[in-house]
From TrEMBL:
One record GO biological process: proteolysis
Classification via Gene3D superfamilies: alpha/beta hydrolase
The protein's name: Carboxypeptidase
Signal peptide, first to last residue: 1-19
Cited SUPFAM superfamilies: alpha/beta-Hydrolases
Key words of the record: Carboxypeptidase, Glycoprotein, Hydrolase, Protease, Signal
PANTHER family found in the cross-reference section: RETINOID-INDUCIBLE SERINE CARBOXYPEPTIDASE, SERINE PROTEASE FAMILY S10 SERINE CARBOXYPEPTIDASE
Amino acid sequence: MRKTILLLLLAALNLPVQAQEKASKAKEVSKETASDANLVFNPDQSTITNHITTIKGQKIPYKATTGTMPVWDADGKAIAGLFYTYYERTDVKDRASRPLVISFNGGPGSASVWMHIAYTGPKLLNIDDEGYPVQPYGIKENPYSILDVADIVFVNPVNTAYSRATSKDIPKEKFFGVNADIKYLADWIGGFVTRSDRWASPKYLIGESYGTTRVSGLALELQNSQWMYLNGVILVSPTTLGIDRGVAADAALKLPYFSATAWFHKKLPADLQAKDLTAMLPEVEDFTLNELLPAISKGSSLDKQKKKEIAGKIARYSGISEKVVLQNNLDVPFNYFWKELLRDEGFTVGRLDSRYKGIDRKDAGDSPDFNAELTSWLHSFTPSINMYIRNELNYKTDFKYNMFGPVHPWDRSGDETAENLRQAMAQNPYLNLMVQSGYYDGACDYFNAKYNLWQMDPSGKLKDRMSWKGYRSGHMMYLRKQDLETANEDIRTFIKNSLPKAGAPAKY
């Protein structure tokens, strides 16, 4: 059972696994979801509850609509029902100018639970100020929610949360792939906006992790298939968005993340450790682009003495010994870094948030036994979302809430989502982009997120509508209380700044 859970988590969070493990995972997932087989799924139902919360000292009344809405095929037949939670502020007089934020998490295969009850929504799960689980489990008010400035709908793709296909005979290819996912979700969003009467509203997409791939593609698909134009896209801990790194860039770009993590664990030389994180990192970034990347590009033609010099600098900036760096030909794998950095202390560091420590069966080896941060997060999120939906949102069902659902095999071919987003921005002068990254995220690291922006807009003509924000935490930066407040305020400011003045035309 423990192996089953581990494999599910690896797949849902986009970790590489062997083909044999994937086959085993699929079989085990099928067994675990067999309890749904005798339940009758209703793709179109909802409940409404009314609430009041306090955000930034202001009382905010709101309505929560929770339920399922169909995905229709070309013939108007419901082929799936997506579970969603839609929060509307109820004391707003001018709904036409009220922004709407459409929120997705990632995986692929993850429910839209993480940002829902830990980031932008009106409720927070019960955790400590650094994001660690505490008991009793539960939910409290979110005083930093963006509900004061925008309504929010949290959407769960097929097989996540309570979302399901209407029949096991519906081909999985309609849902489980980069472009299939984007296509049917654009159709669903079009239907939701129509049903909710939100066509007049300024619209925003926010996605986390694989959700950034999703919303980057949706920005263009919504324009092309729904004729829906956005004001903003927010990418939280973005993937590579289909941008090919190549061997050298793939090897080099991870170093600034290594350095940030080593700084946090006090593994850097005294002169670097004495600097603040954001004062130290520019030196590492400069070395990465101007020395390390060219050196790795040279491969075996790199002079032996120069290779040793470069290895020494990598060691200085990463907290890993020069010997280990040379043994790995200047390219220390992520897994090895998570195992090696604190090996002498008997700990590993987390992948998604490297502030977290883990304990392995043995100190030897090339990779950690488990992801220390992920088990911690599931510890607190799973009971809280199940309790909240049933007890406060009054949505009752016997279906299992899939934190991570069976969506594999996932077709990753044709991922051009960075280019999709660039095209959408080029075609829509109103469209703005903000990227949010945690310095200690080793899955979707902050420097690769910056690299995305440089490669997505090589001409620099869109630069004024792009921004990047960094936070002193990991993949889910909002789990740290200080970053929760700052990151939500950054979203609030982004929304306000991307709303055009009345009558301002969308033109260059």
